[in-house]
Structures are given as structure tokens and as C-alpha cells.
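Before surveying the methods themselves, let us examine one representative protein, pairing a chain with its fold in C-alpha cell form.
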Amino acid sequence: MFDPRCFHRETPMASIRPLKAIATFLVVAMLLVSANAAKAVSLIRDPDIEHALGRAAAPVLTAAGLGSNVRVLVVNDRSLNAFVLDNNHIYIHLGMLLRLATPDMFQAVVAHEAAHITNGHVARRITNMGTTQSAAGLGLALAAAAAAATGRGDVGLGIALGSSASAQRRFLAHSRAEEVAADQSGVRYMTRAGVNPKGAVAVHEIFRGQEVLNTSRQDPYMRSHPLTRDRIRTMKTYAAAHADKVKPTDPEVAYWYDRARAKLAAFTLSPKWTLRRLDESASRDIRLMREAAARHRLSQSGAALKAINGAISLRPEDAFYYELKGQILLENRRFSEAVTAYRKAVDLAPRDALCLASLGRALLAADRPRDALKPLEQARSRDFRNSAMLRDLGAAYARTGNNGMAALATAERYALQGRLKDAGVLAKRASGLLPTGSRGWRLAEDILREAERAEKK
């Protein structure tokens, strides 16, 4: 479901005040982002797409020794770019994914960005940024967590990706030595996974001729990943030398990658464009999913539900088709039916934070705030940086009379949005209402302390 959501929770935290240096770096960067200077971008958060891209990326991530520790997330931007900001996420722009026509091209980008992680380039750039105050200058680019909960269903979450453009450029810039090293490691991971390294050549070919353009006209990927004709030649030589190690594309990888791109296109390109090209779909269920998304965007709810029910009949154990059905029902104000669909999605994917948050939202819309608390708290425990979930959680607590926890959830949401002054006001209120020494009270005190520290700077 395309919805304003925040990031997966990598590690449990009893407090947002970290004890380790890296945690301090990330959280202070998250909390001290300047709202005025931040550049607003969007993330497309959808459980189906994230699962699909994870399945497609898995072979090269495993070959890189990263396994399931790294998630691929989509930036809602039509330019061509991909980057890493920490050791747990690879960010790929929507525009890049729509241009990466084959799984091996996508896996080439993932392998290259994974190589920046395994080669220590991210950690080195963090160290080079210096103090935590310098980190805060980069704002939420490192945490990529703040969100403005817009409530729109066709785009992703609004976040602040950094405060100063110069800080972003310094952090994202790769030296040519790093790029050569990432090239070499990346194609090794591809070969180890049996993926055709010609995919890397095809990605580089997209950017052929970029170097002769004025910097302002180059794609962002070109500016952060300097490309040369020599590097392309080297890649072609490597691909030719290792052609015997290439395996046929795994049908599962092909299916999930096609599905991710199909859903992205169905929700971001013209619905009429999607409907004209339904016969180009890789499988019958993907065709029906695309039709459901397009019909829903055209406010043809009956046709949309017929299509998604058709997809479900083909894959009755697919949590994410039920999740899409829940979205269609919820956005057509059929709240009780939406609850049923989302509950089925959660039954099939009980640990998916985005599905849990959607179930909580549907229960809240169905005027069942007490029932909504459980899935929303479960979602929070797995994805504490989900701004929309925190909004719904705050509303559920308020409607059940727990004003202290309502104030705390709102304070957390404001902190993630970089609204530290507002967060401090709500945290102070929560601190006064919650039992002294409780987990919620400690979290409220930590937010208040960070807000006061930010105000003094």
C-alpha cells in the first residue's frame, strides 16, 4: 500500500537516547534536522514492493555476506540515482527502477551499493563527517526517518533528506578509488551469485555520454558515482571472462522483480497508460494487480475489487494482495471490510510492520480504537520510525482516554519530522501524565532533553 510510512526498526530501543557513538550520531542527526533547510523528498513505502525487491536483491546481498541485514527502499523521485547512507539500507530512485528493465540490471546496482557497505566506504564517510554536530548538519539524510503524514494513498512518505546541500554532496560523493573498488567487489558478488555481470555493463551504458554534459544536466547518479569509458571497458572485459559462471535467471527473482516494477508503475504512471499495457504483464496475477491499482486510481472501485479478487484467487496465500484489497476498501470507506482484508494480510505476514499499521488504521477508521492499539503497538515495536503509524497510535490512545501515551506518540512523530520545539511541548505534557520511571515516561524525558538541547544551539 502506498502510504505515508516510516522506516523499519533495526534494533530495539528502550530510549531514543543511545549509548553508543554510532547510535548517538544517527539519532542526533535525526532529531536535529533543520526543518527550514531540509529538502523534502518522498519514499514509496509499500510492503509488497519492499518484499519483492528484497527477494530480487537476496542473491547478491547473500553473496556479499549481508543477507537480510540490508533493505532496499524506493525514493519517489523520477531522476536516476541510487545510494547508501548507512549499513542497513540501499536507496534506489523510482526513475532508476523504471529504467532497470531486467533483474540483472537491478542486481548490478544492488551489488555495487552493497560493495560500498562491505568495503567500509559508508563508515569512512561517517568518520570523516567528524562531530555529531556535523552529523546534524547532514540532518535526516543518515536516518532518513522523518515524515510528514500526508494521508495520500498514491505517493509515499514525505521525509527530509538532509539540511545543507553541500553536506549532502560531501557525504554522498564517492572517490574514483571507491568507485573502482565497488565495481570490482560488486561484479564479484554478481558472479558468486551466478548473476550475469552484463547487467552492470547495461547500467553503465545508461549513463554513457554523461561526462560531457554540464554538471547541472547530469543525472544525480553520475554526479555521485563518477563513470568513465575506461570503467565500462573494464566491466565488459570482466563480463566476457566470467560468462561461463552465469546461471539462467531464477524464475522467482524474475517474478518478484517484475511484480515490484509493475506495482510501482501502476501507482506512479498514468492509469490509462497502465490499462493500455496490461497484456505486457509477466503473469496473470500481476496483470490483475496492475488493473486493480489503475481502476482504483480512476475511482472505479467495483472493477478494482474484481481485479484484486482475481489476483487473490490465483495466489490465495499472498498477504500483499490482501493488503492491496484492504487499501482499496479503506479508501472507499468500507471500513469493516477493510479490517477483514487487512487482518488476513496480517495472518499471512504477521511480522510485517506495514501490514500491522494498516490493520490498526482500518480498525481506527471503523471506530474501534481499543482494538487498534494492539496492531499499532506491534507495528511500532518493529518500525518505530513510522510517522503515519505514530499519528494513528496517538489518535487511538486519545480516543481510549490515555492522554499521556497520546501525547508521547505525537511527541515522537514531531521529533521524527524535525519539529523539535513541538516535540518538546508534547513530551513535557506526556512526562507529567505518565507514571514516573515507566518506559513511556523515560522516552518522554529523552525527547524533552533532546528538544531543549537543540533549542540552545
Notes: The first helix runs from residue 21 to 31.
